[in-house]
Amino acid sequence: MRDTIFELSRALRTKKISSVELCELYLKAIERENPKLNAYVHVFYDSARRDAERADRLIKEGKGGLLTGIPVAVKDNICTEGELTTCCSAILKGYKPPYSATVWERLRAQGAVMLGKTNMDEFAMGSSSESSVYGAPKNPIDATRVTGGSSGGSAAAVCARLAPYALGSDTGGSVRQPAAFCGTVGFKPTYGEVSRYGLIAYASSLDQIGPLTSSVKDAAAVFSAIRGKDERDMTSFDGEKERELDPDVKGLKIGIAEQFFEGLEGGVKACVESAAKRYESAGAELIKVSLPSLGYTLPVYYIIACAEASSNLGRYDGIRYGFRAENYSSVEDMIIKTRTLGFGKEVQRRIMLGTYVLSSGYFDAYYKKACALRERIKSEFSQIFQKCDVLLTPSSPITAFPAGLERLNPAEAYLADIYTVSANAAGLPAISVPCGSDGGLPVGLQIMGERFSDYKVLSAAYFAQVDGICPDYGVKGGVEL
Questions:
Q1: pLDDT digit string (tens) for 230-260?
Q2: How far apart are CA 232 and CA 226, in angstroms?
Q3: How far is CA 40 from the centre of its chain?
Q4: What CATH number does residue 147 fall under?
Q5: Alpha helices in 313-361 (DSSP H)
Q6: Which of 55, 169, 214, 267 could share a disulfide with 19, CB 3.0–4.6 Å?
Q7: Can you give the pTM of this predicted structure?
Q8: Catalytic residues
Q9: In 3D, which of 220, 192, 216, 226 has the Cα closest to residue 75?
Q10: How far is residue 81's CA from residue 85's CA, in Å, rounded to a whole number?
Q11: Measured distance CA(399)–CA(394) in Å, rounded
Q12: For helices 454-466 and 266-281, what crossing angle results, to 10°?
């Protein structure tokens, strides 16, 4: 795996290339390749060039850091002042926020260069990125397969080398599952480690912003740049002290829960088990653990996520901003028509499910029980991490499936998230790294840790990179220095 950010930073510091020149290379690659991949939905040519000019000035003045002058792709649900942020939804057509998300403020302060916004499932609701109003992104490894979701465009952009790194959001696996399907690294930090201010909300108690990169080392660098307390997000905090990654796993206790290995595709299981043996050969101790509540995590996730979505998405009514329907007879009729035309089928489905579980007579039967089960899941994880340092699982039970997910039964589609949603329900850090292939398609290895153990999780994943477990799936066609 290539530490792309570090390679580019060295090239900029040694004057091998300027930020303006690097930016132009990526913009030309996007012009050439994006029509085939649909990874980007908005490309910011003018502002990217201005960002690059500013970065070159910072470098010249000796004020640059690791990310200065390095281009980045940003998911279309992360607000950027004056630039399109549409959540890949018709209801936010043409919307340009008057403020920026904290993560972009922090990157821009370091001289990052934003190339554009990446494709995603509408309002981050999906596991294939096919619910985007702009059409689905294509998997660079096999264009007949999905990229995963909801951060599918971000994963595709990194895989196709149309961005050195990208930001995504992860509510139930939306960074890690696309990373697994596209052969990249995807990291979901501990809930609260990264500010959610400026992230257009789907499910506020589950949402978390995280990086998609070419390597674990790059992911750690981006995480370190965007993490930390933000007064505008009351759930954010300063977590563990930043530290260097250590690939030495001797004595590391790795939990293996049998529930995560049930119902796996044969090739996926073989790759993950092979990776576990590599850890053991390097001195790690494999410990059998159990998570009996794993089977409940999917319904718990969808009940809580949909309930929060029904509340969060109530603001899109055509009155204050975004799309507004025409030819209406009253304000009520306008709101109904706006939401009917502006939201896609999957978003409508989740809003209705959420409204149902919060309604009188069903709140106790569904939402209250889901919250109680969530606490049970947290407790079981707490018990597991008393026995081990990290938990090793597959990222997904399958590899990237053929395009056309929207034609499946929704319940079948939701199963793609079964191994990732538990980290969101419990607020845990988790990372997906490639660990092999099945039929030529990447297989993702997930490493999870207890809350506030983000650098421990990153270090455990870094071993996989250093030991050669992680193949390089970067697809030719994008930028290569």
A1: 999 999 999 888 899 999 999 999 999 999 9
A2: 14
A3: 15
A4: 3.90.1300.10
A5: 331-342, 345-358
A6: 55
A7: 0.97
A8: 75, 150, 174
A9: 226
A10: 9
A11: 10
A12: 100
The position carrying tokens 């490493």 is: 447
Three-class SS of residue 401? coil
Task: At 113, give phi and psi (nearest 5°).
Answer: -120, 115
Give the separation between CA 183 and CA 189, rounded to whole angstroms.
19
Between CA 198 and CA 76 the distance in angstroms is 11
Residues 465, 471, 477, 481, Cα dihedral to 10°:
40
Distance CA 323, CA 317 (A): 8
Q: How many CA atoms lie within 13 A of 261 on its CB side?
A: 19
- Domains contained in the chain, number: 1
The C-alpha atoms of residue 166 and residue 158 are separated, in whole angstroms, by 7
State both tokens at 267.
């090739």
Neighbours of 407 (CB within 10 A): 8
Of 100, 162, 149, give the one whose Cα is nearest residue 479: 162
Burial bucket for residue 336 (CB in 10 Å: 0-12, 13-18, 19+)? middle
Domain residues for 43?
1-481
* Distance (Å, whole) CA 321 – CA 67: 34
The DSSP code sequence of 29-71 is: HHHHHHHHH--EEEE-HHHHHHHHHHHHHHHHTT---TTTT-E
Could you tell me the two tokens for 374?
């969530």
Q: Tell me the residue length of the chain.
A: 481
Tell me what pLDDT residue 475 has: 79
pLDDT score, position 263: 79
Q: Which residues of the chain have pLDDT under 50?
A: none
Tokens of residue 17, six digits:
């290339």
Name the residue with tokens 């049930």. Answer: 262
In the chain, the amino acid numbered 229 is K
Residue with tokens 């896609």: 344
Sequence-distant (6+) residues with CB within 8 A of 46 are none
Q: How far is CA 250 from CA 279, 284, 385, in A?
A: 9, 5, 18
d(CA 74, CA 443): 24
Q: Is 169 helix (H, G, I), strand (E, B) or coil?
A: strand
Q: Taking the C-alpha atoms of 234, 171, 201 and 190 in order, what is their torsion angle to the nearest 10 degrees?
A: 20
Q: Find where tokens 């340009």 sit.
A: 96
Locate the DSSP E strands across 50-142.
Answer: 71-75, 113-118
